[in-house]
Amino acid sequence: MPPYPTHLESTLTGHKGTVNSVRYNKSGQYCLSAGRDRSVCLWNPTTGLLLHKYNGHGRDVHAVSASPDNGKIASGGADRQVLVWDVTSGEIMRRYTAHWEESSVLISGSFDATIRLWDLRSSNFQPIQILEDCKDSVMSLDVKETEIIAGCADGKLRTYDLRVGELKEDYIGPAITSAKLSKDKNCILVGTLDSKMRLMDKAKGTLLNEFKGHKHTEYKIDSILTNTDAHAITGSEDGNIYIYDVLEGNVVETLKAHTGITTSLDYHPEN
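and the corresponding structure tokens:
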């Protein structure tokens, strides 16, 4: 059996309109989705059961993520709000307006070109730190321990090491819509608006491989790596999901499922 997805296993139906973001929780037992209908949905991906729908945003919800302890959900929307939800009760615990590997710190990126860090334990609703290095919209954030990987519409890939206070910038060129750190933390997979993915060496900033065959020129589309880092996967504006061999750079599988644009992807943390 190939070490990557080869067929459609289930379809989760519950949103009214475009689905903007999908993410597994840390264990992969549940998954989350955020939509244009202003809602966040919690699913059992195995049975397809909608477990809970969270409503509180005033406009489209663009991003969603679960805390490592699975007790909280964070969502960001076009209403310029970051909401923190209690998973069980569905109540809004925090509402941040100004535009995690730890459960106590939430990190958000925005169209206002800033990255903001919020202390969930504090009674102060102002960010504890604002990173203002990006010159255009922050399109993608990946947080691992004390590192933040930021992909920006200004065409630069930025890596922040919060522990030592260092910033590393690599100029990619086209607008970046996705930037994901590899499981071994040595590489970054970058998706850009020139219909390419690039695998970058994190330490040296050099190009290791390039992947093309999908269509990506207008929309924010996720690019991800499998758990072994052996395959790179991306959505596409033709509705397909493309799976590339990381070493060879060729397409090994094309999954045909969506009739519209495939914008958001996440890989199960174990399978």
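(Above: one complete record from the training split.) The first strand starts at residue 19 and ends at 24.
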